[in-house]
Amino acid sequence: MPTLLRLDASANTSSSLTRALADRFVDEWRALRPDDRLIRRDVGATPPPALSEAFLAAAFEKGERSADQHAVLKLSDELIGELEAADVIVIATPMYNYGMPAALKAWFDQVIRINKTFSFDLARGDRPLEPILNGKTLAVLTSSGEFGFAPGGLNESAGHLVPHIRTCAKYLGADHIRHVGIEYQEFGDARHRASKEAAFAAIPDLVAELSSRAPDDDRAEPAFAS
Ligand SMILES: Cc1cc2nc3c(=O)[nH]c(=O)nc-3n(C[C@H](O)[C@H](O)[C@H](O)COP(=O)(O)O)c2cc1C
């Protein structure tokens, strides 16, 4: 079933640029593929908890899990279920302190889990981890106050947001990744306005490209169920 998973990571729920970019993405997607299912996970508004010792013990439990361990993993199971269901993942995230917001990192920590989204085998040599999921597409929609974080840019060495997401994306099963970003927000000048306009203008082509890769619509589910 073609399913879109939209993740919002901004703590700003009223005037967020990345939420507006994701709104535009979803509107465009609906226009092209009105029957696809949408799952929304707002980690900015409701951040997943940071990992605890109890979580680690439960996740790496080799024997039968206790009822308490199942309870500790409940949210992780739910988030992984949403990820497994997704054909296309949209991550809308601001840059906070040159990387991803802690809430988004907490989501990655909850979903990148042994024997769920990756396997570990020392017989593989120096690269013992392998992703379990595959075939997904990832759209990363970002905004930053400063600028020039891409390769060759003024602040390239401080740009840890998109590279970190790209590195982790293979454990989401994402093998096709696209990025659209707004910059210069803190300057509030013509460069910011141009960057914003260019990012919003890029969304229709991005959606056209990604939707052409989505699986065929062959089911009778209600449109945009959530
Ligand atoms: C807590 C916090 C940390 C930030 N850290 C950075 C940063 O390290 N680099 C940067 O370029 N912008 C930084 N910004 C600016 C945001 O990335 C920028 O305002 C962005 O447009 C916010 O996206 P949003 O409107 O979707 O929330 C930060 C903003 C906040 C609130």
UniProtKB/TrEMBL annotation:
Comment on bound cofactor: Binds 1 FMN per subunit.
Family affiliation: Belongs to the azoreductase type 1 family.
InterPro entries cross-referenced by the UniProt entry: Flavodoxin_fold, Flavoprotein-like_sf, FMN-dep_NADH:Q_OxRdtase_AzoR1, NADH:quinone_OxRdtase_FMN_depd
One of the record's GO molecular function terms: FMN binding
NAD found in the keyword field: yes
Endpoints of the signal sequence: none
Cofactor(s) in the UniProt record: FMN
Described purpose of this protein according to its UniProt entry: Quinone reductase that provides resistance to thiol-specific stress caused by electrophilic quinones.
Domain annotation Flavodoxin-like fold: ranges: 4-199
First-tier enzyme category under EC: oxidoreductase
UniProt subunit comment: Homodimer.
E.C. no: 1.6.5.-, 1.7.1.17
Lineage: superkingdom: Bacteria
Organism, scientific name: Hyphococcus luteus
Binding site for FMN: S10
Record keywords, A-Z: Flavoprotein, FMN, NAD, Oxidoreductase
Catalytic activity: N,N-dimethyl-1,4-phenylenediamine + anthranilate + 2 NAD(+) = 2-(4-dimethylaminophenyl)diazenylbenzoate + 2 NADH + 2 H(+); 2 a quinone + NADH + H(+) = 2 a 1,4-benzosemiquinone + NAD(+)
Name of the protein described by the UniProt record: FMN dependent NADH:quinone oxidoreductase
